[in-house]
User: What shape does this take?
Amino acid sequence: MSVVFILVFVAIVMAGGFLVAFIWSVKNGQYEDTYTPSVRILFDDPPAKESNDQVTEDKEQKKESEDCETENGENHGAQSKME
Assistant: This one.
């Protein structure tokens, strides 16, 4: 029978701890924004920072593909996709 008293006491202490944690989180504003978490997946991620070498290579590749398109007057990438 003494085990029951110990378990009831432990349960009350745990419930009090959870109540204190809940009150603390409400006071610190944890439950103020209820809209953003539900639509966060719809937002675009901010662009990742790339190293200077990678940015330079990407720009060179883009310039080469634009030069190829302007020389021939057509887009080779679109043509190969259609075939």
